[in-house]
């Protein structure tokens, strides 16, 4: 083989390897339970009857106050993954989430997909949102949930550098797809088990179905003997 042909063959091999890495990377970036670096939690490994209900994309002027009222009525604690943009707009609502004893957590500032972004961009998004969460009255470790659960390479690297836990979920209501309360409550109640982290949304358009389903889910979970705790409390109970 001439050296030119060898160079061409090597270049071709390089392209194939690069493509294989890119395809593998896309697969990994879709996974909710695998992350290249750092700790990711989709649930807690526990047999105790504990469940963590979570709400994404708030605080929201229409949805968050009635959700707080339902949680209060059931004596349930929950975790709210808030964006910095919405925290900046609704500090008063965030403060009432904190005053009710719920956990406030970081869902980035702008809710951009965090796949092909620089470490500096990720760090600034997270730190800016942390400052707003502190301003609303949240104390202790601040958990993080990536927008769209995308977390490949740069994001996990920054999370490990910052010593932060990344939280996803193992049960979802699918309340951005439908507001049929019966469907939402069965999506949760058919799949929930000890240690589950359940995903609802309080951000975005009005969510009457979410609020109605939450009321039912909390009643049924209580009747099954579950305690509703924050994600940090759930992880502390896990092994
Ligand atoms: Zn989100």
Salient structural properties:
two-stranded parallel sheet; binds zinc ion; single chain; 239 residues; 2 domains; TIM Barrel; six-stranded parallel sheet
CATH topology of the largest domain: TIM Barrel
Query: Could you estimate the helical fraction of the residues in percent?
Result: 40-55%
In total, how many domains does the architecture comprise? 2
* Helix/strand order: HEEHEHHEHHEEHEHEH
Q: Which class best fits the helix and strand makeup?
A: alpha/beta
Query: How many helices in DSSP terms?
Result: 9
What sort of overall outline do the alpha carbons produce when their principal axes are compared? Answer: globular
CATH architecture descriptor name of the largest domain: Alpha-Beta Barrel
Report the radius of gyration as a whole number of Å: 20 Å
The CATH superfamily title of the largest domain: Glycoside hydrolase/deacetylase
Instruction: List the bound ligands.
Output: zinc ion
What does this structure look like?
With 239 residues, this protein is an alpha/beta fold. It folds into two domains: 1-30; 33-237, Glycoside hydrolase/deacetylase (TIM Barrel, Alpha-Beta Barrel). It has nine helices and eight strands. The chain starts with a helix and ends with a helix. The chain binds zinc ion. Zinc ion (ZN) is lined by residues 56-57, 107, 111, 147.
């Amino acid at each position: 083989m001439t050296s030119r042909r060898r160079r061409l063959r090597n270049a071709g091999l390089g392209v194939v390897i690069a493509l294989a890495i890119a395809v593998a990377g896309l697969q990994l970036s879709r996974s909710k339970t695998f992350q290249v670096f750092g700790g990711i939690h989709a649930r807690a490994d526990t047999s105790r009857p504990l469940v963590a209900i979570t709400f994404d994309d708030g605080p929201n002027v229409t949805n968050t106050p009635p959700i707080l009222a339902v949680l209060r009525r059931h004596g349930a604690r929950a975790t709210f993954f808030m964006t910095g943009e919405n925290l900046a707009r609704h500090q008063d609502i965030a403060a009432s989430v904190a005053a009710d004893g719920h956990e406030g957590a970081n869902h980035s500032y702008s809710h951009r997909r965090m796949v092909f972004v620089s470490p500096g961009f990720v760090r600034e998004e997270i730190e800016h949102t942390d400052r707003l969460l502190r301003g609303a009255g949240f104390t202790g470790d601040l958990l993080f949930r990536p927008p769209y659960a995308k977390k490949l390479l740069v994001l996990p690297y920054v999370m490990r550098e910052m010593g932060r836990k990344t939280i996803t979920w193992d049960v979802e209501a699918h309340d951005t797809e439908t507001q049929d309360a019966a469907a939402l409550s069965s999506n949760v109640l058919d799949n929930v088990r000890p240690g589950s982290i359940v995903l609802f949304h309080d951000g975005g358009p009005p969510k009457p179905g979410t609020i109605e389903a939450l009321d039912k889910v909390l009643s049924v979970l209580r009747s099954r003997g579950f305690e509703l705790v924050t994600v940090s409390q759930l992880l502390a109970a896990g092994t």
